[in-house]
Write a structure and sequence with these properties.
The protein is mostly helical and about 850 residues long. The chain contains 35 helices and 9 strands. It holds the Pfam family WHD_UBR1.
Length: about 850
Amino acid sequence: MCWDERVDFQAAFLQKLAKYVPNIYSAEMDPLLEKQEEMAQIKIFDPLEWYLFREDPDVCLEKLRQCGASQLCGKVFKSGETTYSCRDCAIDPTCVLCMDCFQNSIHKNHRYKMHTSTGGGFCDCGDTEAWKAGPLCTNHEPGAASSTKANSECQLNEELMAQAKKMFPSILKYIVDMTIWEEEKELPPVLMTREKTDHYYCVLFNDEHHSYDHVIYSLQRALGCELGEAQLHTTAIDKEGRRAVKEGPYVSCQEAKEEIKRHSENVSQRPLHVEVLHADVMAHQKFALRLGSWLNKLMSYSSDFRQIFCQICLKEEADSEKPCLISMLMLWDAKLHKGGWVYYYKPLQKEYISDDHDRSFSVTALSVQMFTVPTLARHLIEEQNVITVITETLLEVLPEYLDKNDKFNFQGYSQDKLGRVYAVICDLKYILITKPTVWTDRLRVRFLEGFRSFLRILTCMQGMEEIQRQIGQHIEVDPDWEAAIAIQMQLKNILLMFQEWCACDEDLLLEAYKECHTAVMRCSTSSHSREKTVLQLCGHTLESKRYRVSVDPVSIHLPLSRTFAGLHIRLSKTGAISRLQEFVPSEQFQVELLMEYPLRCLVLVAQVAAEMWRRNGLSLISQVFYYQDVKCREEMYDKDIIMLQIGASFMDPNLFLLLILQRYELVNAFKKIMPTKDQDLTKQYNILIEEMLQVLIYVVGERYVPGVSSVTKEEITMREIIHLLCIEPMAHSAIAKSLPENENNETGLEKVINKVAVFKKPGVSGHGVYELKDECMKEFNMFFYHYTKTQHSKAEHMQKKRRKQENRDEGKRLDWTIDQVLWFSAPVSFVLIK
C-alpha cells in the first residue's frame, strides 16, 4: 500500500496526484492511450483499490460481482442507440429498455415502439414504478430462493464502509474542483509540486453556432494545417467537447487563439470558443474525468457504495455558504466542456437557454429521469413546489416576447432560443404525466399554486398576435405564425393533463374552475369595448358590446377560454356542477362574455372560407388550417364549439341566436336588406350563412364529448374511425395519423378498430386497408364536425352511392337522445322545436 494509515488520506492523495498526473497525461496532442491507462492503473488506481479493500482488489471485486446481479440495469444510452418502449406496460413513453433487456423480457411479445436515443437516458429495467407489468428482464430478475441470502452476503463490512467514507469525500472534491476549475494558467497550490513550465495548449471548445465546415475552414486558415488534420480536430471536438489544436509556449498558443477567433468571425457572427490552458491544468482535468469513470464502476458493485456517494454529494459544509458538490456541478453546467435540482431549476434552465450547447450535453436533460418517477414527482410537487417553479421559469425566460399589452408576440423570434424554451414546457409535461391516486391537503394546495402560475402563462397567450382584416392593398410580408402555433402544439397535452388532474378531486376542480373563470373574465373585460349596440329582430332585443370581426382585431389563440371550457365539461361529468353556485355566483357568470372570444374565432374561420381575408396572405390560412387540424383541434376548434354549447345552455335561446347572427354579421341578410347586384358580396353572404348554420348544427348535434353526454373515450375513438372510413377504406397508418394522440402518444386505435372495421388483406400490389362494417354505417353523420370540406363531399358521395346500391333510405337519424346530453339539453330541445 502507498498510503500510511497514520497519514491524512486527503493530503497523501493530492500529493500523489500532483506527482504522477502531469507526467502520465503530459502528451495531449498525440497521446499513447494504452500507456497512459497502464501508468494510471499502476501508479494511482491500484494503490487506491488496495487502500480501500485492504486486500487484493481483484479478489474483493470478484466477490462483490458474484454476490448477485443488480435488479436495476441503469445502462446509459449513447447517442444513436436503439431503445424500446412497451405500449402495453410502460407507465409513459419515457420508460424504455435497452436491447439486451428488451430481448429478455415479456415485452418483446407485446406492442412496442423503437426509438433512437439522443444520448444521456438510461434503461428502466428493474424500476417497478416504470412498468405496469414485467419490470424485470430475466437478466436482472433474481431467484426467489437465493434473494435473501444474496442480500445478506452483499452487505459491505463496517471496515470497508469506513474506508469508503474516508476516501470518497477527497476523491469527489478533487473531481468537482478540477471539473469547474477556471484558472487557465495555475493549479490549486496543493497540486503544484514542481517548477512551473512554459508548456501550454491552445484548446478549442465545441458549440452549436458553428458548422463542421466553419471549424475546418478556421483551423486550416489559422494553423496552416492540412484538411485531414483539421477534420480530425473537428470530429474530436464534436465528440469530446474540446480538443487541443496547438502545443507550445504561451505566446505561440495565444497567437494561435487570436488567429482562430479572427478567422471564425469572418464566416460567423460569433468567434469560436478558444482558451489557452497550461499543460498541468489539462492533465488534471483529463484525469478527473477518468477518476469519475473509475468511481462510477466501483459504485456499480454495491448499493452501499452508492449510498455513501449520495450522502457525500448532498452534504453541505458546516458554517459555509458554498452549495453541496452536486449543486456546484449543476450550477457550472453551461461552462462544462463536454433535488437541489428543483432549487436550482431556474438558473440551470436560464443558462441552458442562453448557452450554445446541445441539450444532450446539458444537466437539464436529466429532468426526464426525475420528473417521470411518480413518487418523486409527487414529492417534488409537495416539498419543492416544482409546478410553480417550472411555470415561473417560463415566465422569466419569455419576457422579451411580451408586447405593451403583456401578450406574447413572437414576430422576429429566434428559432434556436425558442426551441430551447420547449424543453421547459416538456418538463411540465413530465411532471404531470402520472395523475396522483391519493390527494393530500399539501398536494392539493401546491398543485393549485402551480395551476395559478400556469394561468399567468395562458393569460399572456390569450388574444396574442391579433390580426386585422386587410382592405384594399394586399399585405406585403406574411407575419411569422409558426412559433405561436408550435407553442400551442407543445401545450396541447399539458392543457389536457392540467384539466385531468383537476378532475381527480372535486374540491380542487371547483377551486381551479373559479381561478380560471376569474382569469378569463379579467382578460375579457380589460380588452372589451365599452360601447354597446342594440339589436332587435323578430320581437327580441339583444344588447351587446360593439364589435365586428371583419373590422376589429381578432386572435386565434385563446387557451384561457378553452381551458375554462375543458374544466366546465369536467364539472358536468363529475357532477360537481351542482355546487357551482358556491364558487361562482350566477351574477358573476357572464356567459355572453365567456363565449365571446371563441365565437369570434369561429366567425373568423367562416370569413376566411368566404375569402374575405384573402389580402392577409398565407399566414392566416395556415393558422386556420392548424386550428382545425388533428394536431391542435382538441384544444382549439373543439373547445370553441364546447364554449358555444355552454353559452347556449345558459343563455336565453333567442338571445343566443341573435348574438350568433350579429357576430356573423348576417343581421341584414335576415332582415332582407342586403344588396343583390354585387355577386361577390352575395357569394360571401351565402358562405357565411352556410358556415353559421353548420356551427349551429354542431352546437346541437355534436355530443360525443365526456361531460357533454354520457360517452367514453373508446366510443369517441370509434366514432372518429367510423367517419374516417365513411370517406374511403384506409390503411392502419392513415387512420392513426388522423386521430389525436394523448400524452403517451397513443390514439386508442388498436383497442376499438376491430369493433367497427374489417381488415382487407393486400392483393398482388398495394397495401391492406380497413373497411367499415355494415352495421356501423347507420352511425354516419353527414354534418360531422371534424370533416374538411373535401372530406365532407367525398363521404357524402360515397354514402349516397352505397345507399343507392343497397336501396336504402338516405335519411339520417340523430346519433344521440335527449336523455344522454346531461345539462346541455335546453338549447337542443329549443332548436329542434324551432
